[in-house]
Amino acid sequence: MAQSRTSRDSGTFFANLLANRRNAGAAEANSPLNSRAKVGLLTRTLIPSPIIQWILPARLRSKLQNDVVFVGERSLQIKEAVSGVHLETVTSKADFDANIMAAKAINVSAELPWEAQMKLESGTDLPKDLPPQILVLSLASKELVFLYYSNLDGRFIHYRRPLPNDVSTFERFGRNIAVEPRSRAVAVSASCDYFGVFVLRKTPELQAQMSIDELDPVAEERFFRVDGDILFMEFLYPKSEDAGKIILLLLVAQDQLTHAICYEWDANEAFRHATPKVTKRLLAFEDRLPTMLIPLTKTSSFMLITTTSMAIYKNRLDPRRQPSRYPLPKQDSKSQRAPLWTRWARPLRNWLYNQKHDDIYLCREDGEISYLGIGSEGEVENQTPLGQLCCDVDAAFDILDIGHEGGDLLLAAGNTGDGGLFIQKARDHPRCVQKFMNWTPVTDSVIVKPSGQDESSTNIPEDRMFVCSASSFGRGAVVELRHGIEAQIGLVISLEDMLSMGDIWTMADGMDGGIFVLTSDPVSSTLLHLPADFGDEISAIDEADSGLDFGAQTLAAACTSSGVVIQITDKSIHLGAIAEPAANSRFDFGLDQAIAVAAVSTHASLIATAVRTRNEVYLILKRLTATNDAQFGLVDIGQPLRVLDEPVCMSIETFNIGVFIFIGSGNGKISVYRVQESVSFLLEIPIDLELGEDISKAIDSLAVVTVATDGPAQRHMVLCGLRSGILVPLELGLDPNSATAPIVLEQASPQRLGHTSVKVQSRGNFALLTCGHGFWQMSCSQSSGRSDCILQKIWITDQNNPAYHPKSVHSFALTSITDPETGSLSDSLFCIADGQVLICTLDHEARTVPRRIDLPGSANRLAYSPHLRNLIVAYTRTEYDTESDPIRRYTRPCIEFVDPDSQQSVIDILEAPQSEPRPWRPQGTAGEKISCILDWTPKKGDEEYHMIVIGTARKNQPDRGRVIFLQASRSPSNPTQIECTVKYIHKFEGPVYSIAPYGDSTLIVCTGHEIVPLEPKSSQTRWVRAARFPVLSPAMSITTREPYVYVSASRESLMVLKAADDRLVLHAFDRQKHDGLSHIHLDGEMKLTLASSRGGRVSILTEEGVADNDKVMPMALCEAHLPSSVMKLASGSSRSALSPESRVYYGTVMNGTVYSFLTLGENEWRLLHLLQDLCVRDPVVCPFSPKRKQHRHPVGHEPLDFRPSQMHIDGDILARLAPHGSSRLTHMLMSESSSPDPTSHGETWTRFHEFSLAVLGEETNPVDAVMGWLKKILHVEF
């Protein structure tokens, strides 16, 4: 009876709820909230999706650069093969504003690849500065894009061609692209019924366009209709006697039959008047659903790969010839799966070989590859299995042809799991030389926030984001998503006692191109020599031959262009001619003298030392000179100059007005000296911290960096690293006309990085610095008359161990290394960490740098326990019972505790031999699924307890849901391990979907279609049995804020419940029915909630204005429509750059994308909305904006009818403006495109000044001020 009463009450409740939802429209029109509340939402892509759809070897810049194009979901990257077989990112393009549906490379030539190869060998090819290929993309916005990259202008040159608008969006016109082998035509098709052919211009016309940075490749176009689903579309290779023919093949499925349809026409005829010859043939029943269509180069044939066999159809579609059929490459008999062969690639061989052979690589979706040898008659002559790529390949597969003599270079990637660059030698297994990290699909995420002390003590955001990923082949991982500069380890040098090493210097050997590496600790030094190519063995230089002192600490070191190593110790200066030991020399100071600090500049031939004599310190300068007999000597410069403050660090800097010495002291003063014929004191400036007198101001290191400016004038910044963990920048001004004050220093705002000493080194226009566990790169740019410094974290990675990250970097040095093959320079980072010297390749641009901890199964839920300082991850493991018939598969959920700083995969930890048994881990029953994990700290009076709560769902058991309470703690015998036990299990009739804590000791559980309060027996709160609240659909997520419970229902969007009289009652609900996913309550007095739903919708909802009679929330204050659905929302610990009262919020997407969300006040929204309108109208910033979007309304004006979507600001659009600087914004403000009415240009400028004044106050240069503010709020720190 109780069950029937609950059902009857639920039906009445939902009938009333739906009626209230229908009647809410009239009340909304009269709501005063719409007229007064202005809340905007700024979204920004922090981490783009790692999915690689296609990898296309295409030289889009010039024929001399080995480019590879990586095409993602909405962007592309150009990478270049450098240093043999390493791909380095060159540039990217992410302004398409639509999904990319297909991509192909087009040769700017009428020859086949091997014909072009002969032409290349003969020396008659394209001009060196023109690319030999262009790229064609089809966008979901129904247009084709042809593009290449201009090295001269440093930008992409593109051409847009619209596709028919009368084709339904669901038919996806552009799903398939085919390029004719001689690049004379491009075919584009929808998924069914329609296709079009675009005839390209002749090669001389295209080259003439590209020589002046233009592109208009399409000469003619024509569209066709065909009934059925277009499975595949490819151009066939014409026979040599039919070289003037163009042959297009389509595989069309209709009514459970598949036909091959061939269109053939003469390339020399005008295509719009041509009548293509159409040939149609019914495919054999076993070929009706192929997984691949491969055009063969011989006899106009093609190959079909199916799930059971391979078939070759010869001579187009000759009905007189039956297809030749071959078995598929043998599958591993031990495999429990049946993966499909889905990708292929053709290696480029020499011209003579290609006359008689057509070789093909086949790739299976699990990474298995096989090599097919096809003869001149189109017959398969041999099949060679080659082994495993050890990655999922269901997306990208191609071959990079750069003339590598060590074998074919294979490129592979998939939608799940890593991709990679592989070397494939003949009849050998593929070897991975570079990985392309992929963390999709993301099934859950968690933000690990710093402790309260860490959060308040630094100005650097310390939030860490972890996601867990699954895989179609049972491989999963926990991945930390980081943003910054990657330093990838290429070589590791292990030396004894390296943990005590304090400093490292790297010096280019001008004699043979190698590198000297000098390391030092407080009592000794070591000198190593690395060859130029790092190929030979590393040699340690003997002390007797070096002329250096290895029994003392090194204070400074350098190397001259002739290979003489300079070492300064506390007692002497050593000049070591490594190649000629007889030329070694040294200069010793007196017995009562000791060098405190020193600096060397080989560019200025100067050695500066601060020498302590008794109780005084003197600055002594010496010039390095060469004698006639090729020996070096030291000459004093002027007289020693007394230094009043205790010196701690020193630097020699050369500017266009002379040479200067900067000395940092222990009491926080910077002293500047000028070097001419003698040394003279210039100025002294104290550091001002305004943080209290008890903070150390000792300057432990200093460096000078060049500031990036728009004009020719040079500006510089002095960076001072203090022992107290504070970085103090000072703007440096140069006045060549002033003899008394050629240098002016003005302190900027200090920034706390940590609590240990800040070490900083400059490298021209950027600097590297460390503090504690942090490692950063800093660059400076001028904005609004002042220099702004931007910090980017440096992440050291190891391709052989994706989980590796050094605990701390003790010291570092940066040097430029010349590539012996190309002659190009690349920055290499040498650092001492974890008892080793790590030699890393340093990237130029900041990007996503993931760190992965592999799991033995597919992960689906993730949580973090501050109490245990561990991640809690749920994953599934699959076992097979091969003895049963049929084979049975058992999939069970498991729980594991993962140290977020672990440098090993969980697999390695579980498989490693141990002397004692591993702690027990909970494991579910077969078929059970862990739906949620909660780290819970219930309270009883003054006592706190810690528990881990796990919700599960089962299908075939009477109790379909369980809530499992675990107690976990660190092992007393081994604190690195976590021990856990099951404390209690509560069973429910329905599956458990989500859990949230409420109050001191209550859990709110969604089980089935009910929200249920669950309290332990010791709880002081007692909910009545009727406290269960019915819902129409399961709650995907639950949060609480007493006395309210927020629910994101899978079919009902956001609902707010209220605890009243020990029961739950409806307080408010969203007026629109969306498929709810996640939500988070925002700080502030407006009772705002950020909610996400399927379809990419993210809304800001408010509880203000909810009437008691209908409970319906007002219309959303703001609504953003993103390309993908945000599965989970979370708040960060860092404050918004817009307002100290607001936090940064994060959202994760299944495809690996991470968004940030910032709420906007009315003034900020108006200014950003105006900037966004300007960007959308600008062809440089947003070249792919639809015209209807460009002229929707005047710049900065609000539509008459309020729409929530207008309050959304797309930060990705604004981020495109930032690199163009203030000059572009000024141009946009004054451009005619900013307003359809030329007379209103002044109005646009007036509105800009008005809005900027409301946000930033009065500024002498509002454009520069706004650009500096915009860069600050868009800066990615993660």
Automatic annotation (TrEMBL):
<dbReference type="GO" id="GO:0006397">
    <property type="term" value="P:mRNA processing"/>
</dbReference>
<dbReference type="InterPro" id="IPR015943">
    <property type="entry name" value="WD40/YVTN_repeat-like_dom_sf"/>
</dbReference>
<dbReference type="InterPro" id="IPR050358">
    <property type="entry name" value="RSE1/DDB1/CFT1"/>
</dbReference>
<protein>
    <submittedName>
        <fullName>Mono-functional DNA-alkylating methyl methanesulfonate N-term-domain-containing protein</fullName>
    </submittedName>
</protein>
<dbReference type="Pfam" id="PF10433">
    <property type="entry name" value="Beta-prop_RSE1_1st"/>
</dbReference>
<dbReference type="InterPro" id="IPR018846">
    <property type="entry name" value="Beta-prop_RSE1/DDB1/CPSF1_1st"/>
</dbReference>
<feature type="domain" description="RSE1/DDB1/CPSF1 first beta-propeller">
    <location>
        <begin position="52"/>
        <end position="436"/>
    </location>
</feature>
